[in-house]
Specification:
The chain is mainly β. It has a single domain, classed as Jelly Rolls (Sandwich). The chain is 7% helix and 36% strand. The chain has a five-stranded mixed β-sheet, with no helix packed on it. It has a four-stranded antiparallel β-sheet with strand order 5-14-9-12, with no helix packed on it. The longest helix is centred in the first third of the chain and has 13 residues. The termini are far apart. The N terminus is likely disordered.
Length: 192
């Protein structure tokens, strides 16, 4: 397994920079721990594929069941922070295997890319993403007052790097029977 410090976009005195947040060595250690507890190299539960800019339909929806399954992992126990803003990754029950793998090929430029989830039963979904550089993103509630479905997660990427994105769709509680759809979009007006 590659240690995260070799994967970071910028290493300055043992800290990684992503977005406006500079990760501490403790953050890097927690991301490495997460890579041990969540099997990002395992076959995904629901599939995935390759995305190229201009994909259709947009948003592109992928049905799944949100939650941690029979043996859930609580992301809060991993001690991670979001690589973009440093917010603590809170309670989120996920499976050990990712739900999806999406690959962006080198040379493909996405100005904007959003992953978001909508559940069929109004359960409180969560979203965890392992980026190609080994850093992690997480979200429980999207936090946009003007959007509906306040308890649905959304994670935005601006000019995301090429490579594989491993995605877990969890639930705030430990339930596992939450029919949902993961959406991928390049259009900022698409949201939960």
């Amino acid at each position: 397994m590659r240690p995260l410090s070799t994967l970071c976009l910028l290493v300055v005195l043992g800290a990684c920079k992503s977005g406006g947040y500079v990760a501490t060595p403790a953050n890097v250690a927690s991301w490495n721990h997460a890579r041990e507890m969540l099997d990002f190299n395992a076959d995904s539960n629901f599939g995935g594929g390759t995305l190229r800019s201009g994909f259709t339909p947009d948003p592109w929806g992928f049905p799944l069941t949100a939650g941690g399954g029979q043996h859930p992992v609580n992301v809060a126990d991993l001690g991670m922070v979001d690589a973009f803003d440093g917010s603590v990754c809170g309670r989120s029950f996920v499976t050990r295997r990712p739900d999806f793998h999406f690959t962006f090929h080198a040379g493909t430029t996405f100005n904007f890319l959003r992953f978001y989830v909508v559940t069929n039963n109004n359960s409180d979904a969560t979203l965890v993403i392992n980026e190609p550089n080994g850093q992690w993103r997480c979200n429980d509630d999207h936090g946009h007052l003007a959007w509906g479905s306040a308890r649905m997660p959304a994670i935005d990427f601006h000019n995301p790097p090429a490579g594989r994105y491993d995605i877990w769709v969890g639930s705030y509680d430990a339930t596992a029977n939450n029919p949902a759809t993961l959406y991928v979009t390049e259009v900022e007006s698409n949201h939960p």
